[in-house]
């Protein structure tokens, strides 16, 4: 698994990290069931605060890509690779819609209509 | 130490010292020895086998002789030594010479003045003393051999040296885990066999079996991490041992195909300090190779080694740009 962050970018670091992690999971490395390296090690290597990285972990946990097991660390969920793809599509939909001027309520209505 | 001096110490001083340790006590005390020496002991330390002193000298001289011949052969080799066979030959020669001379010396020293070989006391202090001596000889011979020229590894294929494009503000980390189920089965098997065997025979069997079982278990999982600080390898779940190769010691990182027979088998093979090369061989297949600035080579099995190789080469270039 490769993670990279650009400290000079305007995009917040935790968002960059969440995006990188999501892309890595979507590509199958780390695979389902695999344990992520300790957040402290990764944060140190990347020169970011450990809380920034944990915030990215939390985002992916909320998206159902990661789960935290007591005593075992942070694990990639079984459905993560597939899920990561849908999360990406959803993010793309939201970004594109906002760009073309849709409000969040309109985007919700759009999705509801499809269900 | 220069090469010439290393050859002299390895080929003359060490063999002569081993021979002196072996034969001087025997020559001095040969008249004080019993007719037979206790040479074999049961698990509780009671002697249960014996030999005549001259027969025992012959037996231990075989060990000593093989060790001395190996050290002299390495010392006399003019061509660069084979990466694995050279250092292993030198170190094993030292070990055998130390073992043969140690066993003879401590047996003679501890059994002189005995009336009968069955009166011999527990062999453990003697075993320990010979082991310490043989390890000392092994380390000395290994260090001396490391001073001799070694056949260089062929340089990595330029096509196998990828470089990642990293901006000045960009930081990257690559991390991978490797598991080997067969090693897990083997390690668990050794440990369980040790426990079972110890329950039915002698408890101390458990100690070497548990140590070897744990050593195998340690290698069942690896974590390899590459970042701006270099390469880190950690083994198993324990925080120690770990391997860290700082980025300023790396010349190039490349992709290789690891064949266990090129590196001496599976597990941690070789030694960066003693053998100028080391490899963490987890399975046959792709691996990351690091050529270090002092000419040493480190390799580790990983899936998709292109990514860590490219990352490390980028970090090496960045480090050089800032330090020059």
Give the topology.
The complex is a heterodimer of chains A (115) and B (324).
Chain A: E1 2-6, H1 13-26, H2 39-46, H3 50-62, E2 66-69, E3 73-76, H4 80-99, H5 104-114
Antiparallel strand pairs in A: 2-3
Chain B: H1 3-29, E1 37-41, E2 47-51, H2 53-76, H3 85-111, H4 124-146, E3 170-179, H5 181-200, H6 206-218, E4 221-227, E5 230-235, E6 242-246, E7 250-258, H7 260-263, E8 267-271, E9 277-281, E10 285-292, E11 297-301, H8 306-323
Parallel strand pairs in B: 9-11
Antiparallel strand pairs in B: 1-2, 3-4, 4-5, 5-6, 7-10, 8-9, 10-11
Question: By helix and strand content of chain A, what is the structural category?
Answer: mainly alpha
- Straight-line distance between termini of chain A: 35 Å
Order of helices and strands of chain B: HEEHHHEHHEEEEHEEEEH
Shape of chain A: globular
Number of helices of chain A: 5
Describe the biggest sheet of chain B?
5 strands, mixed
Please count the helical segments of chain B: 8
Short description:
The complex is a heterodimer of chains A (115) and B (324). With 115 residues, chain A is mostly helical.
Explain what the structure shows.
The complex is a heterodimer of chains A (115) and B (324). By secondary structure, chain A is mainly alpha-helical. Chain A has a single domain (13-114), classed as Arc Repressor Mutant, subunit A (Orthogonal Bundle). Helices cover 57% and strands 11% of the residues of chain A. Chain A contains 5 helices and 3 strands. Chain A has a two-stranded antiparallel sheet. In chain A, a hairpin with a 3-residue loop joins β2 (66-69) and β3 (73-76). In chain A, α1 (13-26) crosses α3 (50-62), α1 (13-26) packs across α4 and α2 (39-46) packs across α3. Chain B is of the alpha+beta class. In chain B, the strands form 3 sheets. Chain B has a 5-stranded mixed β-sheet. A 4-stranded antiparallel β-sheet of chain B has the order 3-4-5-6. Helix content of chain B is 48%, strand content 22%. In chain B, β10 (285-292) and β11 form a beta hairpin. Chain B folds into 3 domains: 3-146; 158-172 and 222-323, PH-domain like, CATH 2.30.29; 181-218. Chain B has helices at 3-29, 53-76, 85-111, 124-146, 181-200, 206-218, 260-263, 306-323, and strands at 37-41, 47-51, 170-179, 221-227, 230-235, 242-246, 250-258, 267-271, 277-281, 285-292, 297-301. Chain B contains 8 helices and 11 strands. The longest helix of chain B is centred in the first third of the chain and has 27 residues, at 3-29. In chain B, α1 runs antiparallel to α4 and α2 packs antiparallel against α3. Chains A and B meet through β1 and α2 of A and β3 and β4 of B. β1 (2-6) of chain A pairs antiparallel with β3 of chain B, so a sheet runs across the interface.
């Amino acid at each position: 698994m490769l993670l990279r962050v650009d400290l000079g970018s305007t995009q917040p670091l935790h968002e960059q990290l969440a995006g990188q992690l999501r892309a890595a999971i979507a590509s199958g490395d780390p695979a389902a069931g695999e344990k992520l390296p300790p957040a402290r090690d990764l944060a140190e290597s990347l020169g970011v605060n450990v809380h920034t990285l944990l915030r990215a972990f939390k985002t992916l946990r909320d998206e159902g890509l990661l789960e935290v097991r007591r005593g075992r660390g942070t694990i990639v969920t079984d459905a993560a690779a597939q899920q990561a793809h849908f999360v990406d599509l959803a993010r793309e939909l939201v970004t594109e819609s906002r760009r073309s001027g849709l409000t969040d309520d309109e985007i919700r209505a759009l999705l509801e209509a499809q269900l | 130490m220069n090469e010439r001096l290393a050859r002299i110490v390895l080929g003359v001083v060490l063999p002569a010292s081993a021979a002196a340790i072996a034969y001087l006590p025997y020559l001095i005390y040969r008249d004080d020895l019993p007719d037979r020496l206790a040479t074999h002991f049961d698990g509780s330390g009671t002697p249960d086998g014996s030999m005549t002193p001259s027969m025992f000298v012959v037996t231990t001289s075989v060990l000593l002789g093989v060790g001395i011949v190996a050290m002299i052969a390495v010392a006399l080799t003019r061509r660069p030594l084979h990466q694995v066979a050279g250092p292993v030959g030198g170190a094993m020669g030292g070990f055998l010479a130390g073992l043969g001379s140690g066993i003879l010396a401590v047996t003679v020293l501890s059994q002189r003045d005995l009336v009968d070989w069955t009166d011999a006391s527990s062999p453990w202090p003697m075993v320990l003393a010979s082991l310490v001596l043989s390890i000392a000889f092994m380390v000395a011979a290994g260090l001396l051999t490391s001073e001799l020229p070694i056949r260089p590894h062929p340089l990595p294929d330029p096509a196998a040296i990828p470089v990642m494009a990293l901006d000045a503000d960009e930081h990257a980390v690559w991390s991978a885990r490797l598991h080997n189920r067969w090693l897990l089965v083997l390690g668990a098997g050794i440990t369980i066999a040790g426990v079972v065997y110890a329950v039915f025979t002698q408890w101390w069997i458990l100690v070497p079996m548990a140590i070897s079982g744990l050593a195998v278990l340690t290698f069942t999982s690896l974590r390899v991490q590459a970042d701006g600080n270099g390469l880190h390898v950690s083994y198993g779940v324990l925080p120690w041992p770990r391997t860290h190769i700082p980025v300023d010691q790396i010349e190039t990182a490349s992709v290789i195909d690891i064949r266990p027979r090129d590196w001496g088998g599976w597990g941690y093979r070789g030694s960066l300090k003693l053998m100028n090369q080391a490899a963490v061989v987890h399975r046959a297949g792709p691996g990351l190779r690091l050529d270090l600035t002092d000419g040493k080579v480190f390799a580790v099995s990983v899936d998709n080694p292109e990514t860590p190789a490219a990352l490390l080469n980028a970090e090496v270039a960045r480090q050089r740009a800032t330090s020059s």
